[in-house]
UniProtKB/TrEMBL annotation:
UniProt name for this protein: ABC transporter
Lineage: Bacteria, Pseudomonadati, Pseudomonadota, Gammaproteobacteria, Salinisphaerales
PANTHER family, per the entry: ABC TRANSPORTER ATP-BINDING PROTEIN (PTHR43820:SF2), HIGH-AFFINITY BRANCHED-CHAIN AMINO ACID TRANSPORT ATP-BINDING PROTEIN LIVF (PTHR43820)
A Pfam family it matches: ABC_tran
One example of a Gene Ontology biological process annotation: L-amino acid transport
Length: 234
């Protein structure tokens, strides 16, 4: 397994947000974490990367227990998070937003460079000199994902990549996920089932901080009773 969460409990103060989350991802898989608002999707991703360190349980990445490590070290091990609010640096151009994320590592040939990002995603090349703050929501999301790629993640965590985006942009984000899925293991969150099942092979459903269902995409697509029970219909 590339990633394993074993009985992860995470708190915000006294508030018990994750109440024993257990899940696994094999290398190369694209998996979606589904659930309504407040179910604990973001907290699960933040617990993996160490932004909200679990109080109990284990997070194992490529065989190493990481639940007690600081976020910057976990990121350096090869996990990238694209947060829900994207965090594009205002006042920096698209190129500069990518440049600051670039990891200089001796003795390793990086998979991603600004040139490769621009070749693969010409839309970003066209915006290279534009201030990140002036981009549309969809452009910011593309940039946020591209910036995360500059850190050379083997596991990419995407928190609600479609949030607030127009349908035509959602299609582009879907194509981006499909493209990256060929080379990267991906765990993404979503509130509705439609996009998730189109782009993930497998899904977990969270409710009140617990995994309440796990299924292959095809199986969950047919299972409208489970969808109605745990997910928003969109
Ligand atoms: P959303 O779609 O709203 O992002 P989510 O499934 O990602 O939903 P989380 O953001 O992980 O849910 O929230 C899980 C629970 O933790 C919720 O009850 C939420 O109110 C609570 N929570 C989240 N962030 C904080 C915080 N910074 N402080 C206190 N409680 C929080």
């Amino acid at each position: 397994m590339m990633l394993e969460l074993d009985d992860v409990h995470t708190y915000y103060g006294e508030s018990h947000a994750l109440q024993g989350v257990t899940l696994q991802l094999a290398e190369g898989e694209t998996v979606c974490l589904l659930g309504r608002n407040g179910a604990g999707k973001s907290t699960t991703l933040k617990s993996i990367i160490g932004l909200t360190p679990p109080r109990r349980g284990r997070v194992v990445f490529e065989g190493d227990e990481i639940q007690r490590r600081p976020a910057h070290r976990i990121a350096r091990m090869g996990i990238g998070l694209v947060p829900e609010d994207r965090r594009i640096f205002p006042g920096l151009s698209v190129r500069e937003n990518l440049d600051v994320a670039q990891r200089k590592r001796r003795g390793e040939t990086p998979k991603w460079s600004i040139e490769r990002i621009f070749d693969n995603y010409p839309m970003l090349a066209e915006l290279a000199n534009q201030d990140g703050a002036t981009l549309s929501g969809g452009q910011q999301q593309m940039l946020a994902v591209a910036r995360s790629l500059m850190t050379e993640p083997r596991l990419l965590l995407l928190d609600e990549p479609n949030e607030g985006l127009a349908p035509v942009i959602v299609k582009q984000i879907g194509a981006l996920i499909d493209d990256l899925a060929a080379t990267t293991t991906i765990l993404f969150t979503d509130q509705s089932v439609h996009f998730a099942l189109k782009h993930a092979k497998r899904a977990y459903i969270l409710e009140k901080g617990r995994i309440v269902h796990e299924a292959g995409a095809a199986e969950l697509r047919e299972d409208t009773a489970t969808q109605d029970r745990f997910l928003s219909v969109a």
